[in-house]
Amino acid sequence: MAQMIPAAVPPGATSGEKALFKILAALPEDDFVYYGVQIKHRYADFVVISPRLGVLMIEIKDWKPDTIVTADNNTIELRLRSHNKKVPHPLKQARQYALTLMDEIQTRLEGRVLLERDGPHKGRIGFPISYLACLSRISESDIQTLNLSNVFDLSRTLTKEWFTSAQDIPGGQLEGFFACYFVPKFQFAPLNKSQIDHLRGIIHPPHSGSLSCGKTT
Q1: Which of 154, 156, 133, 131 lies closest to 143 in space, CA to CA?
Q2: Is the pLDDT score of 213 beyond 70?
């Protein structure tokens, strides 16, 4: 079982967040999964740290197909009970969180141990940081029916079909599944304990900082 932070999903989480929390808990025991990490005043749904894969940002939405009014690569317009509301595209959110983490690693003192020390990639982050969106109630056929194939890139979007089947995937296979979503992919030595500790310190500082844990909204 992965090391979950916090240990249990808060009662106020959505049904999709609760279900994904349970799925991610099946990852190997040396993986770390953060729920509700605050990044630049916004809350990322899930951040997964895998010594073998790198870091994966996941944004999950419980939208139903008939909830989506219009959508483009930046904004989704949702139909609510009394009005419509425009919200950021989940892939755009997750990508921004990934870019913010990259910036934190490259600019903070604690991040130096996570950078390549020599060679052609000297000074660059030595492991992949990727991102995904998860649509727990929308299927691939829904995406096609709604003509949203150009909006929700299926190479970075998990749909209802995956969400249902993933609940029975063993942890090792689950990590292997996520491996194909690290684009671009490159070889790197598995992160050691010191690197993991430094990375965790950046993602979830023990005191206040730009990245902190505890989703409340």
Answers
A1: 154
A2: no
Mean pLDDT on 155-183: 89
Q: Are strands 157-158 and 211-213 parallel, antiparallel or unpaired?
A: unpaired
pLDDT score of 209 more than 50: no
**7-27 pLDDT, tens digit each:** 999 889 999 999 999 999 999
Q: What is the 3-state secondary structure (H, E, C) of the chain?
A: CCEEECCCCCCCCCHHHHHHHHHHCCCCCCCEEEEEEEECCEEEEEEEEECCCEEEEEEEECCCHHHEEEECCCEEEEECCCCEEEEECHHHHHHHHHHHHHHHHHHCHHHHHHECCCCCCCCCECCCEEEEEEECCCCHHHHHHCCCCCCCCCCCEECHHHHHHHHHCCHHHHHHHHHCCCCCCCCCCCCCHHHHHHHHHHHCCCCCCCEEECCCC
pTM of whole model > 0.85?
A: yes
